[in-house]
Write a structure and sequence with these properties.
289 residues; alpha/beta; 2 domains; 5-stranded parallel sheet; 5 strands
């Protein structure tokens, strides 16, 4: 998807630098600029850009006031705060107002590209889950049952789709483990035994899937890692979402989900960690419900 951005800063030179970085690294289309708070508020409300790079200290309304007002108006723009302010209390206030990430002045090209790229990935994740919610979450039980019947998807496949990983190469491995969970649950103490089971399973069934144990492990870990990112994104979108609450506690350590949420917001330099055993046990439990 093509992203639309607006740059808000009272310094023309800073706006020019940011515009140059965005254009050079193909990070999206710049749809507007503003140099003071009230002008920024009007333009963002009218243009509805995907991302606003917002200076903290602006003439008139400051950046935090502008963001808070726009959030109250349910404007869905994602905000990146730009400032040379080092005061942690003020930075915390900016995050509470609704910013996603923070870029420090003087502008650093690498940091700016990384931050904008992370926000764009976050938007993609939000979009994915919005599509899933529209097609699955809002259905009645009878509609969901009929959709499953018509689609030919199994309960496990719907579970993987809800996590946004049905298309991942490791989803087949996870599906095979959950399908054979009763035979494998005693082997969960040592995950290598589970990977060896899959190797033998694929070789016996002549499936076109690499049966190398290391490849199997890496496929599974990549899929679960993506599931963690998707669940964290779901929590950022709606902390009280029923699926988020169920997945975050059943499939992961909640503290690790919180770390991943903070990482996606730019508050942490490291994301959360996965526990393959917990994910598989929790997945089997949810698919038996």
């Amino acid at each position: 998807m093509g992203f639309r951005l607006i740059i808000v800063d009272d310094d023309k030179a800073v706006r020019r630098i940011l515009a140059g970085i965005i254009e050079k690294h193909d990070l999206g289309e710049i749809v507007g600029e503003a140099q003071e708070g009230e002008e920024a508020e009007r333009k963002i409300a009218a243009l509805r850009p995907d991302i606003a790079l917002m200076d903290l200290l602006l003439p008139g309304k400051d950046g935090i006031e502008v963001i808070r007002t726009l959030k109250q108006r349910n404007i869905k723009t994602n905000f990146i705060m730009i400032s040379q302010v080092e005061d942690q209390a003020m930075i915390s206030q900016a995050y509470r107002s609704g910013i996603e990430f923070f870029i420090h002045k003087p502008i650093n090209v690498v940091e700016t590209v990384n931050v904008i790229s992370k926000v764009e990935e976050l938007i993609r994740l939000k979009t994915t889950f919005e599509q899933i919610k529209k097609t699955v979450t809002n259905m009645s039980k009878s509609e969901l049952k009929e959709t499953k019947r018509k689609s030919g998807l199994s309960k496990i496949e719907f579970f993987l789709a809800d996590l946004g990983i049905l298309g991942e190469s490791g989803s087949d491995d996870i599906k095979a483990i959950i399908e054979n969970y009763d035979r494998l649950k005693q082997k969960m103490v040592n995950m290598q035994d589970v990977y060896n089971f899959l190797r033998e399973y694929y070789e016996a069934s002549d499936r076109r899937k690499s049966s190398d144990v290391k490849a199997i492990e890496m496929r599974i870990r990549r899929a679960i890692d993506k599931a963690l990112k998707n669940v964290a994104s779901m929590g950022i979108e709606d902390y009280n979402n029923e699926q988020f609450l169920r997945f975050s506690s059943t499939l992961f350590d909640f503290l690790e989900v919180k770390k991943e949420m903070d990482f996606l917001r730019g508050k942490n330099s490291n994301g959360g960690k996965i526990n393959v055993k917990k994910f598989l046990e929790g997945g089997a439990l949810l698919c038996q419900e």
